[in-house]
Amino acid sequence: MLKGFIPSTIIYIIMYWTSKKVTLYNKKMKYFILFSIIMVFTISGVFITYHAVLVALLPFLYATIYSSKAMIRYVYFLTVISTIVVVYGVCVYMWKYFENSKWKY
C-alpha cells in the first residue's frame, strides 16, 4: 500500500508546487494537471490493483470541467495507455510476488 501511496503523494506535491509557481490560466497547465492525475491513477492502479477501478473515471471528470473535445481526447489517449500499463504492471507485480513467496507449486 505504501509503495503506491508515497509516489502518488510526491506527484501531488509536485503538481501543487507547479500550480503555485505557474498561473492556472496558462494553457499548458491544465494538460500538466490532467497528466499528473493520470499518473497517480496509474501508480495506484498498479499497486492497489482491482480496487482502483473507479479511480479511472476521475481524469474524465476533470476533463469535462474544461468542456473541450481536445482535452477529452487527450485524457482518453492517456487513460488507454495508463490502463495498459496498469494491467501489465499488475501481472508483473503479482508474478514477482508469487515467485518470491513460500507457495511453490
Account of the 3D structure:
The protein is 78% helix and 0% strand. By secondary structure, it is mainly α. The protein has one domain. Helix 3 runs antiparallel to helix 4. The longest helix has 31 residues, at 69-99. The mean pLDDT is 76.
Continuous helix count: 4
- Low-pLDDT stretches: none
Average pLDDT metric:
76
- Strand elements, count: 0
Q: Based on CA inertia axes, which overall geometry fits?
A: globular
For the record, the count of structural domains works out to 1
Question: What radius of gyration results from the CA coordinates?
Answer: 16 Å
**End-to-end gap:** 27 Å
Structural class: mainly alpha
- Main sheet? none
How do the helices and strands follow one another from N- to C-terminus? HHHH
Jot down its keywords.
single chain; mainly alpha; 105 residues
Structure summary:
With 105 residues, this protein is mostly helical. The chain has one domain. Helix content is 78%, strand content 0%.
Write the layout of secondary structure elements.
Layout: H1 2-21, H2 27-48, H3 58-66, H4 69-99
Helix pairs in contact: 1-2, 2-3, 2-4, 3-4
